[in-house]
Design goal:
The chain is of the alpha/beta class. The protein has twelve helices and ten strands. It has helices at 9-16, 23-39, 54-67, 78-88, 101-106, 119-136, 145-153, 162-169, 182-190, 200-213, 225-233, 284-301; strands at residues 43-49, 73-76, 109-112, 115-118, 142-144, 173-174, 197-199, 216-222, 241-248, 271-281.
């Protein structure tokens, strides 16, 4: 591997690709595969997002992928939706706050690694999301989760919001674990005195239709958990995904889905035999921006 001054992201990635099947080589493989599936009009790209990706700084990158119509749908944890809304309502994610966790709690500050949130931002979030709940349910009280998130997204005046952009571009967002977050807590509180039904099964009808309508499917999985499984399992009845790109720090020894090698998915027919699969071990907030920048450079060089 050789570095020179003023190398582009792609030139560095190409050098990393010369290292074989170690981490650098896998990053190069994943980057080129990402560009390939984005460009292939016959491939639908399913992006699954687990872990603190919005607090970790990926909000604008995910928003841009939607804006450029380079992904076809998103499957995400509810926490990332919550943090997208937090920023859409004027809140932020803070750095360089110091103190013990006990002191942070007393100050009304929550910690996500070395990223911090403030209780006053969540107070605004609570006020604004309650308003949106009433707006969305004014004439209707039963929704699929995807449709409910669409209705919220089109009412958010923040063009950097993932939900807003997805609503504008008609990109579906699925969140099967929507109740497991601050957004879910507000949903529960709202239903104490108001009628609201979220139909989880309805999402599977829509998602299955998308799978069957797609000649090929590529799953790009950031982290593991429920979003990863939902992306893979939705393709089960069609024999699995054609392409899988996974970025995770979880280990395979525990047998958990999050750390499971993608090859294991073939045994469940969640990835096709002969499918193109690559796993990059590392921090998504470090690796995914490099992958996207490299993929965009590959694509721009072909124009």
């Amino acid at each position: 591997m050789e570095l020179q001054e003023k190398m582009s992201v792609l030139e560095i990635i190409d050098e990393m690709g010369k290292s074989g099947v170690l981490g650098a080589g896998k990053l190069a493989h994943a980057t080129k595969l990402l560009a390939q599936v984005i460009e292939d009009k016959d491939t639908s790209v399913f992006l699954s997002i687990a872990g603190p990706m919005v607090p970790g700084g990926l909000r604008k990158i995910i928003k841009d992928l939607i804006e450029k119509e380079q992904i076809d749908l998103i499957i995400t944890s509810s926490a990332n939706i919550t943090h997208d809304l937090l920023e859409a309502f004027g809140g932020s994610h803070y750095r360089d706050i110091h103190g013990t966790d006990e002191n942070l709690c007393e100050m009304g500050i929550g910690r996500i690694g070395d990223v911090y949130t403030k209780s006053e931002d969540f107070e605004i979030f609570e006020k604004e999301i309650i308003k949106l709940f009433f707006e969305v349910t004014k004439d209707k009280n039963k929704f699929s989760i995807r449709d409910f998130l669409y209705e919220i997204g089109k009412r958010i005046p923040d063009e950097n919001s993932i939900l807003n952009t997805a609503a504008r571009k008609k990109t579906p967002i699925y969140s099967p674990g929507i109740i497991d977050s601050m957004l879910g807590l507000q949903l529960w509180m709202h239903t104490q005195e108001n009628e609201l039904i979220l139909d989880v099964v309805a999402d599977m009808h829509e998602l299955s239709d998308q799978v069957y309508a797609s000649p090929k499917v590529a799953a790009v999985m950031l982290g593991g958990g429920l979003p990863k499984h939902y992306a893979l399992a939705s393709n089960l009845l069609k024999g699995g995904v054609d392409t899988g790109i996974q970025v995770t720090m979880d280990r395979s020894e525990t047998g958990s889905l999050s750390g499971a090698p993608l090859e294991e998915a073939k045994s469940w027919a969640k990835a096709k035999c002969g499918s193109n699969l690559v796993t990059v071990i590392g921090d998504v907030t470090m690796i995914f921006p490099i992958m996207v920048a490299g993929a965009w450079e590959i694509m721009s060089g072909k124009k």
